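Dear all,

This email documents one entry for the complex benchmark we are building for the journal club exercise. For each entry we list the sequence lines for every component of the assembly. Then comes the predicted three-dimensional structure of the complex as a token string, followed by one or two observations. Please use this as the template for your own entries, and keep the labels exactly as they appear.
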Amino acid sequence: GAVVSQHPSRVICKSGTSVKIECRSLDFQATTMFWYRQFPKQSLMLMATSNEGSKATYEQGVEKDKFLINHASLTLSTLTVTSAHPEDSSFYICSADRLGEPSTDTQYFGPGTRLTVL
Amino acid sequence: GQNIDQPTEMTATEGAIVQINCTYQTSGFNGLFWYQQHAGEAPTFLSYNVLDGLEEKGRFSSFLSRSKGYSYLLLKELQMKDSASYLCAVRGDSWGKLQFGAGTQVVVTP
């Protein structure tokens, strides 16, 4: 089946630093990827939609200058948490729709990145 | 507004059947997904419904009624490894965005 990877799986950083998370579709091309955030015992909250070759679309309340998204190719999207603070500590998960399969409609999730800001 | 409701927690014994209901009110509808998520892990795809009716896949089945804005996930022959959170998600438009419910924590007891 289709595989989506994320790197790193876990990161601990100091307050004020920036952290980059990569999301890759390994065996398919994805024009659209999605970034979610999940706090403990809560559901996934969509942060933004990442579109290859164009600007990301952010959900209401998500600061675009703080969460920078770049979708440089059909297999890679990156999320950069700039000037991270402890309240940004969360589980960040990306997902990708498989290109050419809108009717199949399986959105594949990456394994997630656990961010801890000290 | 948009709303997806599912129970917070359900408990069942090993070998039993559990049905997790999900009701939704969304602007537009292009499919409903069920995902399983174990603690600390990403969601894994279980099922997808876009037409009314029942989709069966092994021990898991999912049902959809678009007119009622209702779906359920049926888990049969429960196993201990089925203890997890089950997420109902609706694709409200054609852009692929999924809106998730809060998840139902299923606890399987011996």
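Observations: The CA atoms of residues 68 and 97 of chain A lie 20 Å apart. Chain A touches chain B at residues 32, 34, 42-46, 49, 91, 93, 95, 97, 102, 105-112, 114 (CB under 8 Å).
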